[in-house]
Amino acid sequence: MVPPLYFIILGAVVFLIAMLGFLTRRSLIQALMCLELMTAAVALTFLAIGRTMPDGGLQGMAIATFIIVIGAAEVGMGLAIVMLYFRRHGDASTDDIDLLGG
Amino acid sequence: MNELLAFSPEIVITLAGVGVILFDAIWPGRGRVERWITLGAMAAAAACAIFIALTPGLYGLYFQGAMRVDVTTTFARLVFMAAGALIVLSSWATQGEGDTAEYYGLLLLSLLGESVIVTAQTLLVLFIGIELLALPCYALMAIRKHKPGAVRAALKYFLLGMFASIVMLYGVAILFGSLQTISYANGLFPAAGVLDAARTSVAMVGFLFLFVGLGFKVTAFPFHFWSPDVYASGSTPVVAYVATVPKVAVMLALWRILGPGFGAAYPLGQMFIAVVAVTSMVYGNVVALLQDDVRRMLAYAGVANAGYMLMAFVAGGAASHHALGFFLVVYTFANLGAFLVVMAMGVDRSISMRDFSGLGARNGVLAAAMALCLFSLAGTPPLAGFFGKFALFKATVDGGFAWLALIALVTTVVSVGYYLKIATQMYGGIVTPQEDDAEPGRELAAPFRVAPALTGAILACAAAAALLGLFGVGLLTG
């Protein structure tokens, strides 16, 4: 059996990759995909940490289920806003959005 | 059965929120009915909250210790319903918000999220509450589609909000691993010395990540960068809502997570909160001083106020808790009032300091309400804001953090600068027309009328900002 620690490390690496992608990608669709990937990485981390617990991972699985549901709601809302933005501005990139400027 | 009774406010809000949207799907275009349903649901929820408070035996832990109903919950429910009702009143007559069923439905669901945040006793329920609060807000921010920049603001709010939420969720995972639990029914962090050094440092990393998500919602300094842009171009009643109510919910939840003894047991975490508090106060107040757009100014003032609120977590103790609760209520109504006045001045355009020129003569009621709210925010005696700040500062000094209170005091003096700038414009008669004005002063001299419901909401906020101080007196002596 693969030890849970490997999955925790995998989760952290995927989380980092997705985070870098979110901060550097200019396409809104890619930014949304990166957010989803981050969510998936966190769910994986919860599952892996849950396996180390005495209850055999039930708690981790329950949390991961909730995260997946929330992730679906989040991507639905995100796509709706991106669609609206695309219709008004004619492109779907983050060029006009100063994400880190006050 | 007790569960149904203890969570009746949330059940009422959920049914009304979903019901309003269904109602519009079946009988479209009857926004007038929907706004009454919304107001009725808020009143019913507030009545249920009072009933729960008065009925013995309903306070306690519910759902296997996942949610708690207690005094804090009742307090929060009443503040949320009052603020929600004021938001509904303020947009009673606006196109885009007030005549759209989704506006009311999403507002109600977002209020449900606030309630979940405050009642939550595990980090998972807290996260669900935060998402339930945030997802409707992302949509609401863009509800005024024709307003320039509204959709862009909503997109920025969504992207950064989701990013902060997921980072926070990763923090929850780290805390889950290091503390072996995500329940904070008995405090999340164990007493000092229970955790070994390695677990403590991992838990602190988790706390840092958790704080990113919560700090984003309360616009504390390094996580505030979304607020000025979003406040400036989002739908104004929604901005007024986002700028006030989530702060109350998240601050109360953060208190539940950390408890009164966190600072003493975990000096590293305490230091981190203190640094965020100081930078928020200094940065927020100084940058607010440089703003000309009033919405942006209020955004930076919000950053500064988040800093004042965080002082309570540094000092800890019961006195800080009470001071924080009182400060939050006063801040909510004073800030709401200021935003609603800006909204009355112009929904779709940016309002600069200069727009307030001579407001005292053009619409005395509006100017007086704005002055009351601003001076309450600044902390001028005898208004409520003074008692809130005084209690907070006093608790901080008593907790052994005189230097922190001193910084807060100095930055408060700075903040009077920008609040006074608006007051002098309103009453000083300093009309400073811009050079590109075709007929300078023509528009500025005319009196203007405001929708009665909006005026009522503004007056209610101003009255709260001024008179809540009566309750604050007891706080200082007790």
Count of DSSP strands of chain B: 2
What's the pLDDT, averaged over the residues of chain A? Answer: 89
Structural class of chain B: mainly alpha
Inertia-based shape of chain A: elongated
Cα-based radius of gyration of chain A, to the nearest Å: 17 Å
Explain how this protein is built.
The complex is a heterodimer of chains A (102) and B (478). With 102 residues, chain A is an all-alpha fold. Chain A has one domain: Orthogonal Bundle (Helix Hairpins), CATH 1.10.287. Chain A has three helices and no strands. Chain A is elongated. Chain B is mostly helical and 478 residues long. Chain B folds into two domains: 1-120; 121-434 and 442-477, no CATH class. Chain B has 21 helices and two strands. Chain B has helices spanning 2-6, 8-26, 31-54, 71-90, 101-119, 123-141, 150-179, 197-218, 227-233, 236-258, 262-265, 267-290, 294-315, 317-345, 359-362, 364-378, 384-398, 402-428, 442-445, 452-467, 469-477, and strands at 60-62, 67-69. In chain B, strand 1 (60-62) and strand 2 (67-69) form a beta hairpin. The longest helix of chain B has 30 residues, at 150-179.
Layout of strands and helices, then pairs:
The complex is a heterodimer of chains A (102) and B (478).
Chain A: H1 4-24, H2 28-51, H3 58-89
Helix pairs in contact in A: 1-2, 2-3
Chain B: H1 2-6, H2 8-26, H3 31-54, E1 60-62, E2 67-69, H4 71-90, H5 101-119, H6 123-141, H7 150-179, H8 197-218, H9 227-233, H10 236-258, H11 262-265, H12 267-290, H13 294-315, H14 317-345, H15 359-362, H16 364-378, H17 384-398, H18 402-428, H19 442-445, H20 452-467, H21 469-477
Antiparallel strand pairs in B: 1-2
Helix pairs in contact in B: 2-3, 2-5, 3-4, 3-5, 4-5, 4-10, 4-14, 4-20, 5-6, 5-10, 6-7, 6-10, 7-8, 7-9, 9-10, 9-13, 10-13, 10-14, 12-13, 12-18, 13-14, 13-17, 13-18, 14-16, 14-17, 14-20, 16-18, 16-20, 17-18, 17-21
